Inverse folding.
C-alpha cells in the first residue's frame, strides 16, 4: 500500500498521490448527494445486475466467492472491493483480472472531468471510477463491497438487485453508532424495496429486521438455508426450489461456510438474469482466492496472515487458531480508533508472545500505546515493541522453531507491510 512512495511513480501512482493530497484516504464524509450528482453528470447508466455486500466482517470473502462463481459460470463481472493489500488495482477486477493501470487512470480522469466543483473523497472518487470501468468494459454484473456502513456509502448510489449483509459487529462506531442496533440500521440501508436482502448474521439485532421491513426489502436468512447437519466437508443449501450439495470454499475458516451460503443464495436470487448451474457454483467455490484471510504463507514455522481488525474478526481468528501446541507469536499492529483491548482478549489464549509495531500513515498509532492497551486488557503472553512491522516479523521468525507459529494480523496495512519481508526471506 505504498505505491506513491516510488521516486518515479507510475501514472496511476501519481494520480493517486494527487488525490491523496486533495482528499486523504482517511477522510470520511458519509452522504450520497455529491456522489449521485457526479454519477449523473458521467451519463454512464449501468443496466446489469448489481450485488452489494455490506457487513462488519466477511464482505471481501463474499465478494470474492460471488465473483469466482460468476467466472465459473462464464460471466464477466466487475468485482469492487477495498482496501487493497499490495496494489491499488486489486480493488477493481474485470473478468477475474485486475484492471490495467491505464484503464484505471482513464476512469479517474473521467470522474475528474465530471465532478467540476463538486468535492469528492478519495473513496468516492475511486468508487465512481470503478463504475466507469464497468460501463466501459460492458460487464455482465457488478459485485460491490461497501466501504463503510452501507446506507450512506458511495457504492449505494447504485440500486442493489440483491443486498447481502454478512455480519453485524462493533466497528467504526464514531461513524455508524455505538451499538449493534445502530450499526445494523446503517448496513440495512443497502437493501431496496421488493428486492432480496441475504443476511448471514446469526444473531441479528432487532433493528435489522425493522429497517429491512421499513424499506420493503425481502429478508433471507442464509443460516436457515444452510443445513446444519451436513458433513463437515460440504455445504448443503436449500433455497428457491433448489437443493444443492456443494464443496466448502477454498478460503480457510469455519466462518466461511456462512459466507459461502450468502454468496450462493445471492446468485440463486438472480437465476433469471444470471443462470448458473450447480457445477459452476461448485467450481467457483473450489477456485476462490483472497489474500490475507487466514492465509498460510509458509511452514516450519507456520506463518499465517489475516486482516482481522476488530474483536468479532479476532474471535473468528481465535476459533480457527485454537490454543498453541508450541510457541505462538502475534505480529500485531492496529490503526487509531480500533478496540485493541477487545482484540487482545479475544485472542489471548492463542499467543505466548505479542510483538507490536507502528504502521505507516496518518492513522498510525504508536506501538507503545498499542502495547499498553494490550497489557491492560490484559493478555497473558509477553508484550514487546519494535520499530516496524518488518522488524517485528524478523524478530518473530528468528526466535521461532519449526513447530512454532507466527500470525501477522491487525489490519490490511499490517499484512501489506509484512508481505515484502516474507517475499524476501527464505
Amino acid at each position: 500500500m505504498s505505491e506513491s512512495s516510488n521516486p518515479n511513480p507510475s501514472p496511476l501512482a501519481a494520480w493517486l498521490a494527487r488525490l491523496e493530497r486533495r482528499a486523504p484516504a482517511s477522510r470520511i464524509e458519509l452522504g450520497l448527494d455529491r456522489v449521485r450528482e457526479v454519477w449523473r453528470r458521467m451519463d454512464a447508466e449501468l443496466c446489469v445486475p448489481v450485488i452489494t455486500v455490506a457487513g462488519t466482517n466477511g464482505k471481501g470473502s463474499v465478494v470474492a466467492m460471488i465473483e469466482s462463481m460468476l467466472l465459473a459460470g462464464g460471466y464477466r463481472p466487475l468485482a469492487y472491493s477495498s482496501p487493497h493489500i499490495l496494489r491499488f488495482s486489486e480493488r477493481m477486477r474485470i473478468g477475474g483480472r485486475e484492471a490495467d493501470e491505464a484503464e484505471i487512470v482513464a476512469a479517474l480522469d473521467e470522474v475528474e472531468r465530471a465532478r467540476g466543483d463538486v468535492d469528492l473523497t478519495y473513496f468516492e472518487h475511486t468508487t465512481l471510477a470503478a463504475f466507469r470501468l464497468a460501463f466501459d468494459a460492458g460487464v455482465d454484473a457488478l459485485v460491490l463491497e461497501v466501504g463503510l456502513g452501507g446506507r450512506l456509502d458511495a457504492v449505494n448510489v447504485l440500486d442493489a438487485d440483491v443486498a447481502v449483509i454478512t455480519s453485524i459487529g462493533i466497528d467504526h462506531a464514531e461513524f455508524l453508532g455505538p451499538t449493534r442496533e445502530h450499526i445494523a440500521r446503517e448496513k440495512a440501508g443497502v437493501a431496496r424495496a421488493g428486492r432480496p436482502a441475504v443476511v448471514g448474521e446469526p444473531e441479528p439485532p432487532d433493528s435489522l429486521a425493522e429497517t429491512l421491513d421499513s424499506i420493503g426489502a425481502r429478508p433471507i436468512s442464509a443460516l436457515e438455508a444452510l443445513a446444519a447437519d451436513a458433513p463437515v466437508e460440504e455445504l448443503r443449501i436449500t433455497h428457491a426450489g433448489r437443493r444443492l450439495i456443494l464443496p466448502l470454499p477454498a478460503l480457510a475458516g469455519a466462518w466461511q461456510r456462512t459466507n459461502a451460503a450468502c454468496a450462493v443464495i445471492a446468485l440463486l436470487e438472480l437465476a433469471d438474469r444470471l443462470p448458473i448451474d450447480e457445477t459452476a457454483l461448485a467450481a467457483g467455490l473450489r477456485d476462490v482466492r483472497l489474500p490475507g484471510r487466514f492465509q498460510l504463507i509458509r511452514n516450519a514455522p507456520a506463518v499465517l496472515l489475516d486482516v482481522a481488525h476488530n474483536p468479532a474478526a479476532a474471535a473468528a481468528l481465535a476459533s480457527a487458531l485454537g490454543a498453541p501446541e508450541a510457541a505462538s507469536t502475534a505480529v500485531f499492529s492496529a490503526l487509531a480508533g480500533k478496540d485493541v483491548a477487545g482484540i487482545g482478549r479475544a485472542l489471548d489464549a492463542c499467543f505466548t508472545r505479542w510483538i507490536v509495531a507502528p504502521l505507516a500513515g496518518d492513522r498510525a498509532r504508536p506501538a507503545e500505546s498499542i502495547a499498553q492497551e494490550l497489557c491492560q486488557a490484559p493478555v497473558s503472553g509477553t508484550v514487546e515493541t519494535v520499530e516496524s512491522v518488518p522488524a517485528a516479523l524478523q524478530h518473530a521468525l528468528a526466535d521461532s522453531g519449526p513447530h512454532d507459529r507466527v500470525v501477522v494480523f491487525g489490519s490490511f496495512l499490517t499484512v501489506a507491510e509484512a508481505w515484502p519481508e516474507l517475499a524476501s526471506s527464505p
About this structure: The two ends are 23 Å apart (CA to CA).
